[in-house]
Design goal:
The complex is a heterodimer of chains A (98) and B (394).
Chain A: E1 2-5, H1 8-14, E2 20-22, H2 30-40, E3 60-64, E4 67-68, H3 80-83, E5 89-93
Parallel strand pairs in A: 1-5
Antiparallel strand pairs in A: 1-2, 3-4, 3-5
Chain B: E1 3-10, E2 13-20, E3 27-32, E4 37-44, E5 47-57, E6 61-67, E7 112-114, E8 120-122, E9 127-133, E10 141-146, E11 149-153, E12 161-162, E13 183-189, E14 197-202, E15 205-209, E16 217-218, E17 239-245, E18 248-256, E19 260-263, E20 271-272, E21 282-287, E22 295-299, E23 315-318, E24 326-328, E25 346-348, E26 356-359, E27 365-368, E28 376-379, E29 385-393
Antiparallel strand pairs in B: 1-2, 1-29, 2-3, 4-5, 5-6, 7-8, 9-10, 10-11, 11-12, 13-14, 14-15, 15-16, 17-18, 18-19, 19-20, 21-22, 22-23, 23-24, 25-26, 26-27, 27-28
């Protein structure tokens, strides 16, 4: 079970509070986690990554275990602590402005 | 008793303001979609309880919301709230997906456009500026988007398809962004001819389709824009808004960046009707519900100030289809007012007397229940208002 913390705007859209959890079979990567989130919460399609290009939205970043993973390959395995459910993957909106 | 429902989009959410036919006391509901920019909310003429809203964010992209109960509850079409599915069973409909048509069959190749510096840029979807429900079918709705293009949904907003003949008709490489981006902000549907659609784009100009959106042509003859290299060019004009009266759909009124214009032949040619306006710059323009020759604008000081001249918020009304304008000031601030009124932030109801409404970047929504003779604030302290629409309810 992979734990994910969404930014507040997206929690509102998905009608959830707190963390969300997704099951993933196979490698746990940024791509597979976002795939699983979009499958469980279809209203979030297009909000984390662009519908067409599949690129991460520029004002969103991915963190885990106090590391910025935003610029890692989306197919790089996530840290073991995320895979085991010990730590969440944080999807964070840029703070400036708004 | 009849009533009205105002649909207000703001920088930080949507609000629904309702009143009875007297239009003296108002109920305010909202914010809906708090914290998001709501560029536009509009109801279906065929079903007043069917509303469409454009909810957008520089962080999280574009969301289309739909209400089937007059704004009490909202859903994303195709993705009901709380719906969870497995990867094998996700809904096929993706209500928020606006994908430009690049197919070889229809795409004619959908080109590039000019950037501010004159270089060519590919189209890149940013947001929906305007939603325009069909006059006859609640499930059909048009979306004017940035970068400028027109999309249509025929299933209540679940799926969207570009009407690519607009971008592909040939002048696309000459279009360029206005200060607010390269947006398709106006969609007018001709009530007498279902095949005829008008759109306006900043900064490209006005365009017309006579075959329900399949093919398009520029309709900018007569426009003169001193700030572009060829002032009378076929395209490149920063049209801010166009309006029509449903009983005379061949007569169009335009608030251009500078100049208030009129066409009596469905846009084939235009002539200036700015007349005695204190400044002919502005954003919104609208037509009285019962008097096709009565037109409203809000003159704004420009190029860069974008606030009312002399700090006086004045709506100007022409009862002669332009050229002769009178200032409407009663109830509006006549000193120290430096708000703007954006292009989609004015609307008229169809009660008798005609109600006129507009919202400001200062968060006020003003209403007049007597065709503009007197005004009163309905709300004073909303977030900056992006759009105002009104529904006249039975």
């Amino acid at each position: 079970m992979i734990r994910v913390v969404l930014p507040p705007h997206l929690r509102g859209l998905a009608h959830v509070t707190g963390e969300v959890q997704v099951d993933i079979t196979g490698p746990v990567t940024q791509r597979s986690v976002v795939d699983a989130i979009e499958a469980s919460y279809p209203m979030l399609r297009g909000t984390i990554r662009d519908h067409v290009t599949q690129q991460r939205r520029p004002f969103l970043r991915f963190f885990a275990c106090e590391e910025d993973l935003s610029h890692e390959s989306i197919d790089t395995p996530l840290p073991e602590a995320v895979v085991s459910g010990k730590e969440p993957l944080l999807i964070v909106g840029a703070i400036a402005g708004g | 008793m009849s009533g009205v429902r105002l649909l207000v989009g703001t920088r930080k959410g949507a609000f629904v303001l309702t009143s009875d036919g007297k239009r003296e006391k108002w109920d305010v509901s909202g914010p809906h979609f708090a914290g998001w920019e709501v560029y536009h909310v509009k109801g279906s003429p065929a079903d007043p309880n069917r509303l469409y809203a454009s909810q957008t964010s520089g962080w999280f992209g574009q969301i289309i919301q739909r209400s089937d109960d007059g704004g009490k509850t909202w859903t994303q079409p195709g993705t009901p709230p709380g719906e969870r599915t497995t990867p094998e069973g996700t809904p096929k409909a993706e209500s928020n997906k606006f994908q430009y048509d690049t197919s070889a069959e229809t795409g004619k190749p959908l080109t590039t456009h000019q950037f501010y510096d004159g270089t060519q840029y590919p189209w890149e979807f940013k947001r929906v500026w305007h939603v325009e429900p069909s006059l006859s079918d609640p499930d059909t709705v048009y979306a004017g988007v940035e970068d400028a293009a027109l999309f249509r949904s025929t299933d209540g907003g679940k799926n969207w398809k570009e009407l690519s003949g607009l971008r592909g008709h040939g002048t696309g490489p000459k279009w360029q962004p206005g200060a607010g981006g390269m947006c398709l902000h106006t969609v007018l549907l001709d009530p007498s001819n279902p095949q005829r659609i008008f759109v306006a784009i900043s900064a490209a100009g006005a365009f017309r389709s006579d075959d329900a959106g399949e093919t398009w042509k520029p309709i900018n003859r007569g426009l003169k824009s001193q700030y572009i290299p060829s002032p009378e060019a076929e395209v490149g004009h920063c049209v801010h808004r166009i309006a029509m009266h449903p009983s005379k759909p061949g007569v169009l009124f335009m608030q251009k960046h500078w100049d208030v214009m009129r066409s009596d032949n469905a846009g084939d040619s235009w002539h200036e009707v700015s007349g005695n306006l204190p400044t002919d710059f502005g954003f919104p323009i609208d037509v009285h519900a019962h008097e096709p020759e009565t037109v409203y604008v809000v003159p704004i000081k420009s190029d860069s100030e974008h606030f009312p001249p002399d700090g006086k918020l004045r709506v100007y009304r022409s009862r002669t289809g332009g050229n002769e304008w009178e200032a409407l000031t009663k109830g509006l601030p006549q000193r120290d007012c430096y708000v703007n009124v954006l292009r989609d932030a004015m609307a008229v109801d169809s009660l008798d007397k005609c109600g006129v409404y507009f919202g400001t970047t200062g968060g006020q929504v003003y209403g007049s229940a007597d065709a503009g003779d007197t005004w009163a604030p309905i709300v004073r302290d909303l977030p900056a208002v992006l759009s105002v629409e009104v529904q006249t309810l039975p």
